[in-house]
Amino acid sequence: MMFKKLIPPKQWQPVVAALIGAIVGLAIYTAYNARVGSYLSDDPTTCVNCHVMTPEFESWKHSSHREVATCNDCHVPHTSVFAKYGFKAKDGLYHSYVYTTRSEPQVIRMHEAGQEVVQANCIRCHGDQVTDAKTVAMVPDNYKHRTDRQCWECHRETPHGRVKSLSSVGLGIEQLPVQYNKKLIVPEWLKDALSK
Amino acid sequence: MSSKLKNWLLFIATCLVVILLAMLGSNITERKSESQFAYQPQVKITEFEPRNEVWGENFPRQYQSFMKTKEMNFSTMLNGNQEKDILEDSPELVVLWAGYGFSKDYNAPRGHGYAIKDIRETLRTGGPTGPGTGPMPSTCWTCKSPDVPRLMNEIGISEFYAGKWADKGAEIVNPIGCADCHDNKTMALKISRPALIEAFESMGKDINDASHQEMRSLVCAQCHVEYYFNKKEPKKGVPYLTFPWANGMTVEGAEKYYDDMNFSDWTHSMSKTPMLKAQHPGYETYQQGIHAKRGVSCADCHMPYKTEGGQKFTDHHIQSPLANPANSCQVCHRQEEKELIENVYSNQRKVKERTKRLEKILVRTHVEAKKAWDLGATEAQMKPILMDIRHAQWRWDYAVASHGGSFHAPVEISRIVTTATDKAQEARIKLARLLADLGYDKEVPYPAIETKAKAQKYIGLDMPKLEKEKKTFEKNIIPKWLEQAKAREAKYPTESVSSK
């Protein structure tokens, strides 16, 4: 009954359809422009869609972690698929709000939820190093010290380093993640010249 | 509520939705374009832009550090960034290279910024008096400048290699720089010379499979390698730049490669040996060392990352890592700077001790072979001896011409020097027997070659003439080249990127 009420009188239907089409079209365009689809992936280049993240991306890319861990390996939970995408959605909506309203701080810090996730992820991969039976037996207070601090209280340079302000990477044109584009190794002109 | 009011409200709500969506859309576009200005491009860099200063406008930090390759203020135990006269240091080399350009002039290499100046000034390129003159082929320009890929694209690869060195002097004027290693749009590392691609093919590999880390060495390997000029293929008569890698990147692999095709760079003027000149197998030698095995690239040590006011970038002041151990060595090695440098020197001293000794032995082989020829030795008698001399000197040259080889792969270089000594002594034993057969059983005296001048006189070089030719060339030809180049480059479009 309610639904029927929403249908406009016959003579208005074409106009209303056109208007709704315009709104939906505009929404699709906005989604495309914002590369909404890329947020479903684990590709680190997605995180530099928003260039505020360039210092984090650059410092990760120059770290040893780049070979083994992407942004999502550390920054979203890996307990279940629902936890992962739920967290991504929650975090992502917050980020897009901050970014759109230009309220990003000069120095970006993780919120508590994010810190818990990263800490859990450090241990997820480095579990063997932090639960070594030998050190537990040999080092007094090992268990306590292992559990009352976060990994990066000591490992401060891992993987992003200490330079975290928005201006820390200025000339880093590498925000275009070009090294993945392997075709560039031999430029087109040289390929052509060699095939002659 | 009247239906009129309802319609108005609906109209306003729709307007609001559209306005908000449009604002969001425009905001996204705006914020996307912002990232373009995280780095501020001043000019549009075209695909073949050879002028480093144009790239430098967009990348001031990289450019300014690159400009420091012109500094001449640092020396290590063996090298550094100064133009050191190696022949003065070791006059033996004059005799070893008798009949070949290197006996005229051989300096320790300076920084990339001097690439063009040094090739113009060395006596090895002689004193051309115009197009088509002079001792060297056009191929000698290949590694010197980002003008090379530009010109290769314009006229073709074989056409580039064809002709004399002097033919292209007006075209090639910018020293090694940005376009040699970087893509103009993305700044990604790229290969700009054909020889490395072809060498990979000859080994059955595809260079397109190279990782980013490998590329940080491969861009260097375009030039810092052993190479030769193939005049038979792919075009007869054209000295085509080729790497002898088909049998692998070892000293023996290349030796077999050259022996199989019966190649020689020149014939020694005293011993009549068909000789091989090792160029600078830096990349191949590095491959044999521990740093390569651990995945450390050339750039990791020679172009370490540095920061300036919180900005992190690659130091384009390409130089000996010993000038900057804090950023190169100590990133991985926690020892004291002094201790690290002493470790390098200790390896180098040990290798140097053996090569110095070997050089003297090699001089003797050439002198003794000449004596045998003078006493009427036949070609058949000399053939096995000359083969030993060829292999011995090739290995010695390979060991010493790979600058930094005694650091990059000390054990491999020691092995090469040892096998070279072995071959040289083998030649001398055969020579002793032959000389005795020819009726000469005394020691062939070691020549008086205490200085470069004495050694050059001994092998019969007319140095004053060569120097005079060079002076005339520098006075008459180079200014013309510069003028032509200036006129050409003035026509290059330099489109500035306005930020309106």
TrEMBL record, chain A:
Enzyme Commission designation: 1.7.2.2
Signal peptide stretch: none
Annotated InterPro entries: Cytochrome_c-type_ET, Multihaem_cyt_sf, NapC/NirT_cyt_c_N, NapC/NirT_cytc_sf, NrfH
UniProt keyword terms in alphabetical order: Cell membrane, Electron transport, Heme, Iron, Membrane, Metal-binding, Oxidoreductase, Transmembrane, Transmembrane helix, Transport
Subcellular location: Cell membrane
Main location: membrane
GO MF, any single term: nitrite reductase (cytochrome, ammonia-forming) activity
All residue ranges annotated as the NapC/NirT cytochrome c N-terminal domain in the record: 10-162
Enzyme class per UniProt: oxidoreductase
Family the entry assigns: Belongs to the NapC/NirT/NrfH family.
Listed name of the protein: Cytochrome c nitrite reductase small subunit
Organism encoding this protein: Flammeovirga kamogawensis
Classification of source organism: Bacteria, Pseudomonadati, Bacteroidota, Cytophagia, Cytophagales
TrEMBL record, chain B:
Keyword presence, Lyase: no
A Pfam entry, by short name: Cytochrom_C552
Compartments, record wording: Cell envelope; Periplasm
Annotated positions binding heme c 4: 298, 301-302, 408
Top-level enzyme category: oxidoreductase
Residues binding substrate, per UniProt: 227, 280
Catalytic function, reaction form: 6 Fe(III)-[cytochrome c] + NH4(+) + 2 H2O = 6 Fe(II)-[cytochrome c] + nitrite + 8 H(+)
Chain sites annotated for binding heme c 1: 140, 143-144
Amino acids binding heme c 3: 112, 220, 223-224
EC numbers, comma separated: 1.7.2.2
Keywords attached to this entry: Calcium, Electron transport, Heme, Iron, Metal-binding, Oxidoreductase, Periplasm, Signal, Transport
Assigned protein family: Belongs to the cytochrome c-552 family.
Descriptive protein name: Cytochrome c-552
Native source organism of the sequence: Flammeovirga kamogawensis
Primary gene name: nrfA
